[in-house]
Fold this protein.
Amino acid sequence: MSVWPALRALVIDDEWPARNYLVELLEGTGLAHVVGAVATVEEAQAAVSPGSQLGVEVAFVDVQLARDSNDRAGLELARELTASSSKLLVVLATAFEEHALDAFALGAVDYLLKPFSEERVRLCLERLQTRRAPEPQKSQRIVARKKKNLVFLEPDEIWAFEAADRLTFVHTRHGRLDIDLSLSAIELSMGRSFLRVHRNWLVNGQAIKELDREDAETSLFVGESLSEGGVGVRVPVARDRSQQVKDVLLQSAVGVRRG
């Protein structure tokens, strides 16, 4: 499971068995949603063009496309893609180890060697999740209920969203309020500054003040103050997300050695 929404992936490979197998591996991780799988340079260019509605975030490019005419077509396409957008991530996928240096020279963020393995594909996606370009903070306000009143909240006022007893709540300095949206709908609308740390919790990354690990359990303190009796809420972190949550938090922080 991922603390961020699945990456929108494009697979480019002119051999359909390899292309379909990589699609299956990517989708199987739950970390990526394949929005396109194409065989040619022209189809790939159309998929990532400004007029495309696919919203591709990462492209997996086979090095050797159309071998009968140009065995470096994939490398040329990768170079074009990395130059066209600073937000688009490019991963080279090939059966030849000697292209590893090409990958780094082109600005590719990773290098997958055929035959692909589920473990290696998952590792690649986990790395990409922490490198993906951040979305701008959504400007729309959240409307919550306080008895018969409607309360309008700015995103930076919100500490966390909680799903409990078939209801959804928003935690803020104003208390815990009711909200009509599902946690999944909120996750889609709030952008990547909010992290899904548990199936029942979505937290504002900017409001996280402490990560606590005790035995095998991980929790976050989310709020305004860490002082005794501090204003905030303690949020559990799912075991299968704890390491990724830590990595995401350290990605934008300095002062502690990773490990």
Summary: The CA atoms of residues 128 and 253 lie 18 Å apart.
